[in-house]
Design brief:
- The protein is an alpha+beta fold.
- It has two domains: about 160 residues, no CATH class; about 80 residues, no CATH class.
- It contains eight helices and 13 strands.
- The strands form three sheets. Strands 1, 2, 3, 4, 5, 6 and 7 form a seven-stranded antiparallel sheet that branches. The protein has a four-stranded mixed sheet with strand order 11-12-10-13. The chain has a two-stranded antiparallel sheet with strand order 8-9.
- The N and C termini lie far apart (about 55 Å).
- The chain binds zinc ion (2 copies).
- Pfam families: DUF6882.
- InterPro entries: DUF6882.
């Protein structure tokens, strides 16, 4: 079987499953979504009372601007642990020499993205598929199961997150007022960080610019004056690492 036949078969299967999935959970009845990469939960909701949670596995993302596909296993920004399960599809691709299943990222289109999702759905035994789009990026997921609203993971998720217009719900992070993605101003951190890292209970992501660092050293510590210069703000974890990548370059 060539790739075209293979993927068409999976796509037909997805259409059938997706139909049942949408009807059973009234998927189109929810106006909003957010997902949390750390707990690997997708929330669909209209209000705090009208909501449903699903466990998902990330398939990959499609950039409309660049018209490229990137598999989740290739994407360093994908912190979901379950993305490793998608490697089974890659291995299958290697055996059958289906190049699109093998390469981490390449020029592509939306049809490809749905084909990949349908292949993963089949391999992973999902109950449905979902696509979220933030900015120009479409993220494709296989839905594995409904998550009980009273589950520990859902409760934790609600407690620990901030809502970001760009990224949905993520962990909170704190930065000085001067940091943006226009001018690199240095990135001083309370401790070394990387995206998705586990944090101790008392730790937060915290960063400030070189100017703030000067003021802090002048005062010997964070005090009223150095803090009022910094004007620390609350942002989301994803925004934090975008700032880090950009501002670090000046060091
Ligand atoms: Zn600053
Ligand atoms: Zn954000």
């Amino acid at each position: 079987m060539n790739y075209k036949e293979f993927s068409q078969e999976k796509l037909d299967n997805l259409i059938h499953i997706q139909d049942l999935f949408k009807k059973k959970f009234d998927i189109d009845g929810y106006e909003n979504w957010f997902y949390d990469s750390e707990s690997e939960l997708l929330r669909l909701y209209n209000s705090d009372e009208d909501e449903i949670y699903f466990r998902y596995i990330p398939v990959g993302s499609y950039s409309q601007n660049k018209q490229t596909w990137m598999w989740s296993w290739f994407n360093e920004n994908s912190i979901e642990k379950s993305k490793e399960k998608v490697l089974a599809v890659k291995e299958f691709g290697a055996k059958n020499q289906y190049e699109k299943l093998l390469e981490g990222t390449f020029t592509s289109d939306k049809f490809d993205a749905w084909e990949f999702t349908s292949i993963c759905l089949d391999f992973l035994n999902g109950i449905g598929a979902y696509k979220v789009d933030s900015n120009d990026l479409d993220k494709f997921m296989v839905i594995m199961a409904v998550e009980d609203i009273d589950s520990k993971d859902v409760q934790l998720l609600k407690q620990k997150t901030v809502e970001c217009v760009q990224h949905g719900y993520s962990r909170p992070a704190f930065v000085c007022q001067h940091l943006d993605c226009k001018t690199a101003r240095g990135f001083q951190e309370a401790f070394d960080t990387y995206k998705g890292m586990e944090l101790e209970e008392d730790d937060d992501f915290q960063a400030w610019c070189d100017e703030c660092e000067k003021v802090r050293i002048e005062h010997g510590e964070w005090n009223e004056e150095s803090e009022s210069f910094a004007q620390i703000q609350l942002i989301c974890e994803n925004c934090y690492f975008e700032l880090k990548e950009f501002n670090q370059k000046s060091n």
